[in-house]
Design a protein that fits this description.
mainly beta; 196 residues; 6-stranded parallel sheet; 4-stranded parallel sheet
């Protein structure tokens, strides 16, 4: 499918590459539209400055791949283990942006992803434990059954987000933004009684 080892500023439209394995392919500032990569393994690849628009990326693997400043719009990314990627050793802001995506059953355990975005997404049963999502834009996202524990959410924006269960005592939430009535869920983890 991809005969070259490097691609610069190219647009790929309607490509179907399911259950394949891409080894050591580098994409710089490329755009993927209406493409299907379901079940594909990106092994030791590089995705830098790329955009995926309305793509099916369910069950992809990013094994030892470098991901930097990648944007996903209206994509399906169910069951992705983002911890398999090769993340920068130095803190880099805004490595990922998800807009109106489905991210169910994925994991970001322990990743350092400050200032990333997960706007208006469906993120059910996603694992954010021990990750750094400080100053992230999580607005409008549904976090049903997602896990937060020892997560750094300092300055994160959860306005219009729904169904999150975040224990203020077990996560860093200073200066994070929440909106009523959903913000009342922050009280559920406390040993208190709320009267009407």
């Amino acid at each position: 499918m991809f005969a070259e080892s490097e691609y610069y500023d190219e647009t790929f439209d309607g490509i179907r590459c399911e259950e394949e394995e891409l080894d050591s392919v580098r994409f710089y500032d490329c755009t993927f539209r209406n493409c299907t990569f379901a079940g594909t393994t990106f092994r030791e690849c590089k995705l830098s400055g790329c955009a995926f628009v309305e793509c099916d990326l369910n069950g992809i693997r990013v094994t030892d791949s470098h991901v930097s400043q990648v944007r996903f719009e209206r994509c399906r990314l169910v069951g992705v283990n983002w911890t398999e990627a090769d993340w920068p050793r130095l803190r880099v802001a805004g490595l990922l942006a998800f807009d109106e995506c489905v991210l169910n059953h994925s994991t970001f355990i322990g990743l350092d992803l400050p200032e990333c975005a997960m706007r208006n997404c469906t993120a059910k049963d996603v694992d954010f434990r021990e990750a750094n999502w400080s100053n992230a834009d999580m607005s409008g996202t549904d976090f049903s059954e997602s896990l937060f524990g020892e997560t750094n959410l300092t300055g994160a924006d959860f306005s219009r987000a729904a169904n999150y269960r975040i224990d203020p005592g077990g996560n860093r939430i200073a200066k994070a933004r929440f909106a009523l009535p959903e913000a009342l869920s922050l009280l559920y983890c406390m040993d208190i009684r709320i009267d009407d």
